[in-house]
Amino acid sequence: MADDKEKQEKKPKQQQQPKGEKQGKKPKKDAEQAAEAQTSSPEPPSEPAPRARLWDFYEQQVRGKLQQQFGFKNPHEIPKLKKIVLNVGMGDAPKNPKGLDAAVAELASITGQHPVVTRAKKAIANFNLREGQPIGCAVTLRGGRMFEFLDRFISIAVPRMRDFRGLPTKSFDGRGNYSLGIKEQMIFPEIDYDKVERIHGMDITFVTSAGRDDTALALLKELGMPFRMEAAAAAGAAA
Question: What is the pTM (predicted TM-score) of this model?
Fold first, then answer.
């Protein structure tokens, strides 16, 4: 009987609250999320980049001049620049992978687009080359980036060439595409002289929809490419 009385006198234990709900506190994760939501405000949408000025110049002036010069009746016949391809060949890339990484980084800073590493299609025993080994990098530019690169190339990079006397006009392939070789990548202002490990050149190809060399030459001239004055043209101008 004494034991029963003691059990009845004992007070019932209070129910334990979960740890996260003690003293009215929210769980740690929920509190952090609420604080982040209060402090972080939605960022305003960034303005789109302005259109390349050379693109507007082509559509407003160059197209009309070419149509009048060659007498194109169909506006789709007017030649246009389709793409620009930059290619850097590194013959010692299998033995010097750091040099290839540096070339990739430099080409990315010049064009603003990540390059693609080119690999050997065939194995050549005389050059100790195996199929699939990296041998260089390349970038293909289209649209706004293409016109922005061409604008910077004509106005900034070309005048910085050593002993520059104009670009050759005999580098067309017969289908309206123009190729150009550069000996040093230092002509581009994006390259930092102190970080250059090795001086290398590159090939630049301007692909057009002309289909003919004369219309492609006229297109590139109107866009501002400083071509070399041939001997015959110079003699005719002197006469």
Answer: 0.70
